[in-house]
Design brief:
The complex is a heterodimer of chains A (429) and B (99). With 429 residues, chain A is of the alpha+beta class. Chain A has helices at residues 15-26, 53-56, 62-65, 104-117, 163-167, 191-198, 239-245, 249-258, 260-266, 315-335, 344-352, 354-361, 365-368, 373-376, 378-390, 400-409, 415-428; strands at residues 6-11, 31-34, 49-51, 70-80, 85-91, 99-101, 121-123, 130-133, 139-144, 147-156, 179-188, 204-212, 220-226, 230-238, 270-280, 291-292, 295-297, 306-307, 312-313. In chain A, strands 3, 4, 5, 6, 11, 12, 13, 14 and 15 form a 9-stranded mixed β-sheet that branches. Classes of the chains: A alpha+beta (429), B alpha+beta (99).
Chain lengths: 429, 99
């Protein structure tokens, strides 16, 4: 057998692909990074919050060196209702360095530049059509148009739709309750306007999450993140619920942007870009086979996302999986065994690290978050309790517990529902 | 800085995006028989954030592939065999400048 063209061929220049390629090049392996966009980042889109601690393991100074937008010091989760908004709003210096807002067209391009510096051969504008396999079924390279490229290991970092992993039968077509569609606009506003509206100074940023009326009661939520001189605004809608609702994704997005609690931040802005992206929401239940003969799967392509109700994570898990994959692939290349057995170190590292542990911790979260009362009933109940507490209408006051009891009694939420949801929530989140 | 944000219609929003249209090849192919027999045109049209699809009077599915944001939602909600959807050829399709 002739020598392969490369030790490793990585498909997809997002965070998972770039970090895998970078680390393997640093180990001294020959690496090609194939990207279908005309430039790295051109096809990549996310809500925009990167939980960055794991990236510091690869690039200790990324927060200063990379084009991040703002440092998130304010996290808020709000139930929107038809008449108002009620929620938790955390501003803390202790969040410093935890998360950054990013715009992927710029951020991923920076990651790919680091790859090229490390000696990775970058091939942009190339769509991989299928994998090359040996008669025994081992992956030996890839096919792009008329070109073939061979490698000892192929890394499928080709995103949530991963045609590569699906083509090999490593992942079945996900069920509709395991997927959500993110619909997003980037809206330009002057830096000072953003600072004033969100109560921010300098490079401080805010990440607001909204549920309930945010999506018209459809499972999912809305988001509003601050970039340096723009806002990222959008909704994430679980596909089974969206399909059953009869609503259109774009109408839900429009209504979210028009809600007074959102509009107050957006007013006067101009849409710079409109995009959408599919989000894997199945958590551990969606994690398929991550390594087979000659191939590993990383990031979104492996279904690595977590929605804990408060945090929605993808990029940090992608980077975590990339670090595990680069370790496992490095070991396999050094040992001269890139079979599934030789690459098994990837899954071991993945599951032993924070990615596997967090997936396990939140394994019940997806089922919990499918409970419809989260999106339809609890927002109005909470608003009712707080309004009754604040509205001094000269009727005699009641203790807060009685106020809450009255609000619950007159809501569609039964006590058994509440107890069930609380118990499930405590165990899932 | 006063005045509401006008998010505009979906085509107006998409007009802000950068696209390199592949004139020779559509990356979306519809099997109209499967679409009509399963009655899936409406749900596909509603779920696509870019309004790539329209439900035709005969129950078929119209396609404007140039507007595609390449998210894959249509494929996820379509019954087996209704759509053949893959990414556009390298360098073609939407190019996010923000992302």
């Amino acid at each position: 057998m002739s020598e392969p063209d490369f030790d490793v061929a990585v498909v997809g220049a997002g965070p998972a692909g770039c970090v895998t390629a970078y680390l393997l090049a640093q180990q001294g392996h020959s690496v090609v990074l194939v990207e279908r966009g005309e430039a790295p980042g051109a096809k990549n889109l996310s809500g925009g919050v990167l939980y960055g601690r794991v990236l510091e393991q690869v690039f200790p100074d990324f927060a200063a060196a990379a084009p991040v937008e703002r440092r998130v010091v304010r996290n808020a989760v709000t139930f929107l209702t038809s008449t108002g908004a009620v929620g938790v709003d955390l501003t803390s210096d202790r969040l410093d360095g935890n998360a950054y807002t990013v715009l992927r067209a710029r951020f991923d391009a920076w990651l790919a530049e680091r790859c090229e510096e490390a000696g990775v051969f970058l091939m942009p504008g190339v769509r991989v059509d299928r994998l090359l396999t040996s008669p025994s079924g081992a992956v030996t390279g890839l096919v792009a148009g008329d070109d073939e490229l061979s490698a000892r290991v192929v890394v499928a970092a080709d995103g949530v739709n991963s045609f590569l992993a699906r083509g090999l039968g490593l992942r079945p077509k996900p069920a509709q309750n395991q997927l959500a569609v993110g619909v997003k606009a980037v809206v330009s506003l002057p830096r000072e306007t953003i600072d004033d509206r969100f109560g921010l100074v300098g490079d401080e940023g805010a990440a607001l999450a909204m549920v309930g009326e945010a999506t018209g009661g459809i499972g999912g939520g809305g988001f509003l993140y601050t970039n340096a001189t723009s806002l990222s605004v959008g909704v994430v809608l679980r596909l089974d619920d969206l399909a059953a609702s009869g609503a259109s994704a774009s109408d839900v997005f429009d209504r979210y942007c028009e809600h007074p609690a959102v509009q107050r931040y957006l007013r006067g802005g101009e849409v710079l870009e409109y995009g959408s992206h599919l989000v894997a929401e199945g958590g551990l239940g969606m994690l398929g086979t991550v390594a087979t003969d000659g191939l590993v799967v990383v990031g979104d392509a492996a279904g690595l996302t977590i929605n804990s109700g408060l945090t929605v994570r993808g990029m940090d898990l992608a980077i975590g999986s990339a670090i595990a994959a680069a370790g496992g692939i490095g070991d396999a290349l050094d040992a001269g065994d890139t079979s599934a057995a030789g690459l098994a170190g990837y899954r071991e590292r993945l599951m032993a690290g924070f990615v596997g542990k967090d997936l396990t911790t939140y394994a019940k979260a997806p089922a919990f978050l499918e409970r419809p009362r989260m999106y339809r009933d609890y927002g109005p109940v909470l608003e009712d309790v707080m309004v009754r507490a604040f509205d001094l209408d000269t009727t005699p006051r009641k203790h807060l517990a009685s106020v809450a009891w009255d609000a619950l009694r007159t809501s569609p939420v039964g006590m058994l529902d509440l107890a069930s949801d609380l118990w499930a929530g405590v165990r899932a989140l | 800085m006063s005045g509401a944000l006008q998010v505009g219609s979906v085509p107006e929003r998409l007009a802000h995006n950068r696209y390199a249209l592949d004139e020779d090849e559509s990356h979306i192919v519809v099997d109209q028989d499967v679409v009509r027999s399963t009655g899936c045109a409406g749900v596909i049209a509603r779920c696509c954030p870019a309004h790539v699809y329209t439900e035709l009077p005969d129950g078929g599915l119209g396609v404007e592939y140039a507007a595609c944001l390449e998210c894959g939602t249509c494929l996820a909600v379509a019954p087996e065999g209704a759509l053949s959807w893959h990414y556009p050829r390298g360098g073609f399709g939407v190019s996010f400048r923000e992302g």
